[in-house]
């Protein structure tokens, strides 16, 4: 693993210095602003609520200022972010908030087909099931590293090497996508190395296949295998989703996710996945509590609405969570959200989630069972995100 990373860095440096730097006269600047306050009601969020335990209502705000400068062969992006709870004082003291560079990278484009990016950046592939930006959270996810994007006749390839020093982790990723009028195929190889504990290192490989079955329907199939540390056994993940689109009815998705493992504690784990999107918005699986594999049958309905000339849409999802061996039912979860866009720079979101856990799920989380089984999570969010173009 270390030899592979060394040769990748050496290759990128060689390509970097082998091409002459040419001054560019044409340039553009873009400023992105975001103010995103969100109030949340958490009642059984991530962990099942205990008898007599009260819910929690609070408001957070994400504030971002991002500047991007682009030339013919060069791009620089600097993005600063502050996330704080309402009521926290503002100031320069370290206790007054968390203001830091969320994005900070420079990109070089030696040809129309090649781009090299250096620095802190967003890396997301496919539907973000394995590697995602987690932008639903207030902090998001940004990775420090080196990235190479290359376009070929046979598709587009990405190779990235990232570092997470506080967690002692380095990650090597390779992703390739091929797409035509009928299908989209992507391959992903993901290595995560823990310098402190080789047993928690892993290698994940697999593919995503999306086929246009008809003009209104598509089928998605995903399959990934994962090897932990020096163990010879494999864990795996399988996904099947069928999507049907209708102008009058909306978009209907029916699917199932199956994450399995050879033994307890060795189930498939999507380390950098945007798991909130796939495994329930209340985050009981792979976000709040570790899941030792699972089976998730789900149905989703999305439809656009026009309410008094206001563009809006609703998204309703129903999950049925089982243990990975299908012998135990964890819970049912209903997620619903309504989104309105009064203008292109403003978005309003209102959501609510309800979960009905079983006795087995209480035991799985080592929580006391309650006569009041309903768990809730609700939120309302305002998102102001104007864009300023300067030439």
Keywords:
single chain; 391 residues; 18-stranded antiparallel barrel; 19 strands
Description:
The chain has about 400 residues and is mainly β. About 5% of the residues lie in helices and about 55% in strands. The protein is built from three helices and 19 strands. It has helices spanning about 1-20, 275-280, 360-365; strands at about 25-45, 55-70, 75-85, 100-110, 115-120, 145-150, 155-165, 170-180, 185-195, 200-210, 215-230, 235-245, 250-260, 295-305, 310-320, 330-345, 345-355, 375-385, 385-390. It has an 18-stranded antiparallel beta barrel. The longest helix has 17 residues, at about 1-20. The chain starts with a helix and ends with a strand. Residues about 20-25 have low confidence and may be disordered.
């Amino acid at each position: 693993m270390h030899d592979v990373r060394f040769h990748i860095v050496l290759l990128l440096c060689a390509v970097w210095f082998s091409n002459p730097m040419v001054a560019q006269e044409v340039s553009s600047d873009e400023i992105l602003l975001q103010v995103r306050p969100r109030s949340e009601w958490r009642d059984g969020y991530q962990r099942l609520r205990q008898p007599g335990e009260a819910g929690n209502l609070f408001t957070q705000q994400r504030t971002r200022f991002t500047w991007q400068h682009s030339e013919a062969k060069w791009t620089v992006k600097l993005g600063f972010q502050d996330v704080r709870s309402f009521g926290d004082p503002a100031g320069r003291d370290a206790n007054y908030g968390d203001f830091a560079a969320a994005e900070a990278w420079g990109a070089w484009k030696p040809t129309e087909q090649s781009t090299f990016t250096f620095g802190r950046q967003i890396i997301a592939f496919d539907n973000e099931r394995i590697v995602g930006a987690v932008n639903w959270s207030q902090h998001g996810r940004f990775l420090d590293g080196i990235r190479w994007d290359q376009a070929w006749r046979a598709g587009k390839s990405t190779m990235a090497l990232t570092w997470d020093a506080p967690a002692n982790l380095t990650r090597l990723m390779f992703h390739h996508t091929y797409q035509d009028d009928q299908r989209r195929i992507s391959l992903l190889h993901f290595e995560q190395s823990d310098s402190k504990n080789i047993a928690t290192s892993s290698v994940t490989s697999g593919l995503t296949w999306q086929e246009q079955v008809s003009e209104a329907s598509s089928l998605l199939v995903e399959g990934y295998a994962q090897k932990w540390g020096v163990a010879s056994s494999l864990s795996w993940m399988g996904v099947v989703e069928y999507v049907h689109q209708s102008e009058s009815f909306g978009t209907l998705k029916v699917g199932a996710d199956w994450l399995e493992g050879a033994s307890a504690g060795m189930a498939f784990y999507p380390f950098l996945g945007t798991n909130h999107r796939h495994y329930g918005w209340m985050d009981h699986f792979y976000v709040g509590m570790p899941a030792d594999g699972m089976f998730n049958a789900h149905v989703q309905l999305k439809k656009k609405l026009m309410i008094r000339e206001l563009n809006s849409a609703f998204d309703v999802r129903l999950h049925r969570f089982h243990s990975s061996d299908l012998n135990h039912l964890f819970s049912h979860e209903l997620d619903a959200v309504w989104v309105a866009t009064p203008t292109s720079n403003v978005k309003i979101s209102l959501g609510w989630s309800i979960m009905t856990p079983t006795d087995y799920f209480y035991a799985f989380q080592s929580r006391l069972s309650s006569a009041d089984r309903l768990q809730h999570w609700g939120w309302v969010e305002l998102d102001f995100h104007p864009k300023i173009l300067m030439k």
